[in-house]
Design goal:
299 residues; alpha/beta; Rossmann fold; 2 domains; 5-stranded parallel beta sheet; two-stranded antiparallel ribbon; 16 helices; 7 strands
């Protein structure tokens, strides 16, 4: 990665990170990776290729930028990432963390899996089954599925942040709480973020962007080919060994085959029950860690 101010948006998944990527791409002093979600620090198959490969593959086009970084939302959850980032990028990295109501975030991830034909349980049961599923899918060849089912784990913001604070100070982090900072006050939040990154906050950007809306597949069979265990997928992995190229192809196919749909909504009673059962203590701890009220998640 070039020797500019380094930054990483590390998550969380399903928290408007794609929208932020499209916003930051517009700024002439900010350089983002050529593809969103390089997964360099989270995938062993990428990490073992080394920093030179990482820099050439994703950042070779960013000479002259003041702040350079990437957005991979799985980084917040992946336990090995903080140590790898410290080892490769040093102590001066800046981090962006985007979060939302943990129940809503988990439900959005669940709906994503339903759309991709990976999830067939009810949401409540999927939360209950999480640890057993994570144990089942912890095998190296099934790591992607392991993270796919970490609904509670990826919404456990305090636990995720705690792993980073073992290597980096709290002042290295810029937190965006979607309900307070992004669904409203977006322009003001983006300006604050630009100042945090050390670039000109007076440059006008189009922040009225809404990426990854709720959708459904036109043909579920295509999802089974893309995400299932089958010979076509195995052949694709051999034919296109580069992870970032497969990611780009997969995103293109999803854009062509998904259609917008109404966003599913949790009932207030179920949402409250799940929050108290799985996330109440985490919310309180995260509030204390970032010194900010998150009462909006309890309403």
């Amino acid at each position: 990665m070039p020797k500019q101010q380094k930054f990483l948006c590390v998550g969380a998944p399903k928290c408007a990170t794609t929208t932020l990527y499209e916003i930051l791409k517009q700024h002439p002093q900010v350089g983002v990776s050529s593809y969103k979600e390089p997964n360099f620090f989270s995938l062993d198959s990428n990490y073992t290729k080394g920093m030179e490969w990482y820099s050439k593959t994703y950042f070779s086009h960013l000479a002259g930028k003041i702040a350079v970084g990437e957005i991979t939302p799985i980084y917040f959850y992946h336990p090995q990432v903080p140590a790898r980032v410290r080892s490769c990028l040093g102590s001066e990295v800046k981090f962006i963390v985007m979060v939302r109501d943990p129940v809503e975030r988990a439900f959005s991830q669940y709906q994503h899996n339903v759309r991709d034909n990976l999830e067939h349980e009810r949401f409540e049961r999927a939360l209950f089954l999480e640890q057993a599923r994570l144990n089942e899918y912890r095998l190296p060849e099934r790591t992607a599925l392991h993270t796919r089912f970490a609904y509670r784990g990826m919404s456990s913001y305090a636990a995720c942040l705690g792993r980073y604070l073992e290597f980096f100070p709290l002042e290295s982090f810029f937190f965006i709480v979607l309900e307070m900072d992004f669904f409203s006050r977006r322009a003001e939040t983006v300006c604050s973020l630009l100042r945090f990154l050390g670039v000109d906050d007076q440059i006008v950007l189009n922040v009225d962007i809404h990426e990854n809306p709720a959708s459904q597949p036109r043909l579920r069979g295509i999802k089974q080919i893309i995400y299932g265990r089958n010979w076509l997928r195995s052949m694709a992995r051999m034919t296109v060994p580069a992870v970032y190229l497969r990611q780009a192809i997969k995103r293109r196919i999803n854009r062509l085959t998904n259609i917008r749909s109404e966003k599913p909504v949790l009932s207030p009673d179920l949402k409250c029950n799940l929050r108290e059962r799985f996330f109440a203590a985490e919310i309180l701890q995260f509030e204390q860690m970032i010194d900010r009220s998150l009462e909006v998640w309890r309403s």
